[in-house]
């Protein structure tokens, strides 16, 4: 059964517009309630919508050049509001409410941007608890899987000495250098220490056009409802309507001959009879709601992505030049197939449009 707890996708997408198709695939496969993107690369006040999501963005204000920036997408049905964070860093925070309030803070720290521990502490002090602070920190430390420690990593290491902050990373690489095949761990997920035991953190087993690998975070609300994304339906494949009618008539005949002046009581009584009889004679089943496939999805793309995932897994275990070249080829192939399939799907759709189309 699919996990119905709230899911967060964390990803340095390195350009929203060119990676939108791949983001659609991630949404299709994981149905996240929240998506946190770094390097969305929007120009100034530009906002890119996603169907069924409310978007919050903080874009880098560089005239005429799209770069950097952070975005948070929240499912439209989830109550959410942006929080005003005073900082010189590229940071965006949103508070959501899913059985309990949770603060999501998304940060992008480019290599050329210097920061100190106090800068991150200043942000954390402004976040209502509990919180999840995630993003591309471009910081290295063996604590989260890097082979070296750099000055930025030392700042984060010192920050983690505080008792109220926990690191969720498990040393799995989150970044691949496409030029040489080297892996690194520079995308971090921090949270309130009280929250850590209720979060499942893992890097997805696939790479896309971005050099960063998406991260999936599953959050268990304190009073979460496991039936949130389920609904019950009557099993109408082979209903026994004759038995249903007979049992309803029998139950109605047992009702006392009293004049119920309250119409609501009469309706409730009859509804209860119908429901209980249907449960005995028809039965019901529970369905899980899933997001439909994107219109350009096909078996060829499915197979290409499967092969790419397998190549990534093999390369992680055997880092040879041969395996790296194969991974790059399969990565390029899946990107090509997605682009072409989407183009053909659009052509097919537009060919059906005529004067009678509504």
UniProtKB/TrEMBL annotation:
Keywords: Nucleotidyltransferase, RNA-directed DNA polymerase, Transferase. InterPro entries: Endo/exonu/phosph_ase_sf, Endo/exonuclease/phosphatase, RdDP_mobile_element. Residues 103-215 form the Endonuclease/exonuclease/phosphatase domain. GO terms for molecular function: RNA-directed DNA polymerase activity. Pfam families: Exo_endo_phos_2. It comes from the Eukaryota. Gene3D superfamilies: Endonuclease/exonuclease/phosphatase. The keyword Nucleotidyltransferase applies. The keyword Transferase applies. PANTHER family: ENDO/EXONUCLEASE/PHOSPHATASE DOMAIN-CONTAINING PROTEIN (PTHR36688), ENDONUCLEASE_EXONUCLEASE_PHOSPHATASE DOMAIN-CONTAINING PROTEIN (PTHR36688:SF2). This is Putative RNA-directed DNA polymerase. It comes from Aphis craccivora (Cowpea aphid).
């Amino acid at each position: 059964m699919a996990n119905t707890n709230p899911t967060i996708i964390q990803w340095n997408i390195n350009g929203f517009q060119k990676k939108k198709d791949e983001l659609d695939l991630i949404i299709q496969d994981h149905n996240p309630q929240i998506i946190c993107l770094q390097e969305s690369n929007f120009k100034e006040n530009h906002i890119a919508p996603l169907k069924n999501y409310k978007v919050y963005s903080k874009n880098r204000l560089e005239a005429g050049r799209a770069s950097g920036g952070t975005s948070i997408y929240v499912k439209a049905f989830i109550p959410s509001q942006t929080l005003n964070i005073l900082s010189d860093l590229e940071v965006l925070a949103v508070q959501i409410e899913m059985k309990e309030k949770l603060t999501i803070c998304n940060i992008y720290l480019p290599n050329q941007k210097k920061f100190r521990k106090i800068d991150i502490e200043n942000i954390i002090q402004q976040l209502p608890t509990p919180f999840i602070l995630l993003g591309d920190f471009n910081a290295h430390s063996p604590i989260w899987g890097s082979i070296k420690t750099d000055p930025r990593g030392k700042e984060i290491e010192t920050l983690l000495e505080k008792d109220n902050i926990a690191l969720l990373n498990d040393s799995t690489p989150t970044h691949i250098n496409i030029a040489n095949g080297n892996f690194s761990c520079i995308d971090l997920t921090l949270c309130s220490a009280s929250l850590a035991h209720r979060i499942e953190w893992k890097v997805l087993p696939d790479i896309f056009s971005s050099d960063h690998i998406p991260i999936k975070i599953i959050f268990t609300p304190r009073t979460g409802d496991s039936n949130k994304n389920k609904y019950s339906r009557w099993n109408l494949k082979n209903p026994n309507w004759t038995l249903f009618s007979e049992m309803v008539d029998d139950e109605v005949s047992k009702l006392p001959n009293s004049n119920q002046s309250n119409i609501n009581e009469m309706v409730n009584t009859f509804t209860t009879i119908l429901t209980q009889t249907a449960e005995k004679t028809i039965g019901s089943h529970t369905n899980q709601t899933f997001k439909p496939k994107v219109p350009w999805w096909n078996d060829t793309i499915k197979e290409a992505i499967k092969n790419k995932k397998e190549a990534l897994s093999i390369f992680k275990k055997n880092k040879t030049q041969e395996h790296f070249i194969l991974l790059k080829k399969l990565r390029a192939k899946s990107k090509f197939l997605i682009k072409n399939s989407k183009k053909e799907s659009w052509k097919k759709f537009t060919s059906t449009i005529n004067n009678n189309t509504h």
